[in-house]
Amino acid sequence: MELNECINFQLNNAQNAVFHYFKLMLAPYDVTPIQYALLKCLWTEDMQPPTQLAQTLQLDTSTVSGLLDRLEKKGLIERIYNTQDRRGIHVHLMNSGAALQGPIEETIMAANKEITAGINPEDLERFRLQLKVIENNAKAGRHV
User: Fold this and answer.
1) What is the residue-wise DSSP string for 51-100?
2) Is the dihedral of CA 27, 33, 38, 40 positive or negative?
3) Residues 45-55: pLDDT tens digits?
4) Interior CA angle at 79 toward 45 and 107, to 5°?
5) What is the pLDDT of residues 81-138, one digit of tens each?
6) CB 93 within 8 A of CB 46
């Protein structure tokens, strides 16, 4: 098999290109694509524990902890600690983080539209379903 025929190589190249594009689009807001994903979780439901964010984003808790550190330094979120149990933490979206929702979501919608230009909606939905099959097969560790 040629390298460019390997699904891992193809997916990696596509992911890198899309990530770079989204990184450029989000740069004016000083937010990375993964920081956007975490903010999106909080725009949907504020006051989530870091473990719930990690589960939703399919990241390990140490990665989420680093993301929270960076977003907290930017003044976009804050950690609220349970006074009875310091291990009980919830992540709260600050007003500055909430204010980014409109412009960032507009940017994300435009970026998605541009990235998927030329793909009809039925093919795009089929592609998303096929990606889910690939993901599930990889997680199941199926062997051919």
Assistant:
1) HHHHHHHT--HHHHHHHHHHHHHTTSEEEEE-SS-TT-EEEEE-HHHHHT
2) positive
3) 999 999 999 99
4) 50
5) 987 766 689 999 999 999 999 999 999 999 999 999 999 999 999 999 999 999 999 9
6) yes
Six token digits for residue 45 = 């439901």
Helix/strand/coil percent split, the chain, to 5: 70, 10, 25
Long-range contacts, stretch 132-140, CB < 8 angstroms, 24+ apart: 134/7, 134/11
Six token digits for residue 56: 């939703």
- Local structure of 41: helix, strand or coil: helix
In this predicted structure, what is the pLDDT of residue 82?
A: 82
Classified as helix, coil or strand, 135 is: helix
**123, 11, 17, 66: CA torsion to nearest 10:** 120
Domains of the chain: 3-117 (1.10.10.10)
The pair of three-digit structure tokens given for residue 132, joined into one six-digit string: 């889910």
Provide the pairing of β-strand 89-93 with 77-81.
antiparallel
